[in-house]
Amino acid sequence: MNISAVMPTYGRTDLVFERGxxxxxxxTDGRRFLDFGSGIAVTxxxxxxxxxxxxxKDQADKLWHTSNLYRIAGQEKLADRLVANSFADTxxxxxSGAEAMECALxxxxxxxxxxxxxxxxxxxxxxxxxxxxTMATIAAGGQEKHLDGFAPKMxxxxxxxxxxxxxxxxxxxxxxxxxxxxxxxxxxxIVPADIEYLKGLRAMADxxxxxxxxxxxxxxxxxTGKLFAYExxxxxxxxxxxxxxLGGGFPVGACLATERAAKFMTPGTHGSTFGGNPLAMAAxxxxxxxxxxxxxxxGVAATADKLWAKxxxxxxxxxxxxxxxxxxxxxxxLKCKLTNTDVVAKVLANGMLTVPAxxxxxxxxxxxxxxxxxxxxxxxxxxxxxxxxxS
Length: 391
What we know:
4-stranded mixed β-sheet, 13 helices
């Protein structure tokens, strides 16, 4: 047999982690690494957070799964909290960001088609975006590296330049149902959208009767310094996809919606076997306990300011290795002058996990719970790595 038992769809680094605490991971052979990847923006409370661990242990002793044929108390609690702290009136729980995006796309189509507009199904998306790995979401992202080998590309998506409102308006046809955008493109290279662009998309959607979908799978749950990234723009979407940080490492996704957008999502229109089960809801509610605690988000913003100041000084010091720092809050990209994967590998060799992204960017996505010690450790490793690369 030439193929591994685990399907080889990842180019995995040869590390096996055995345990974690806070922002640190330890391998089976005892090596310690500072985790500034957070499982790609997932472990927002770090590893083995005591409140999250206790909540999961407590729920595991009671009940794991019943299916959505019955009411689930944890869903109702989490939904009420998200409604109270967002634009949304209602939501659907699932297991991943791709599923949350699928729900948003289905909701947008049904919104129009249930009102008789059977030809409205097309969605305008931004080049450089990433929305998941399903057939629909790779078509939405439109990136050739994700579409290669999976032809024909699912119809219904029209890509335009990210940040270009004129192109978005020009792409509208009588078949257009919705527009999708990431407030900060993650996989595309940590590229923040201009506030006026986002406001322009909202105005455009209203003018043409479209639904505005925000993909906050990576930006949501405190990552940018606010609970949701749309809050920076003083406007709201109609639908929003969440996942990653919502479960703190447990698979949880959610599609948030206004009542208007979701009013035709009636029994039988959508479903999930595992989505929102008691274990997932225990994890997500524990995460929300921490994120909604008084002063927590202010602390994230203050931590981000400290880290940004040190990173900007680092870029200036190592201007042959780094070009700039960009992003928002603790969703940070270091644009590299050397090949980003080489920089990621060097940083890893010096004891720190980071994540590559498009546009030759190294992503820093630390837990929201980091403090001065972790910031100093990260800067020391990045400084050492850049010096070694430059020499």
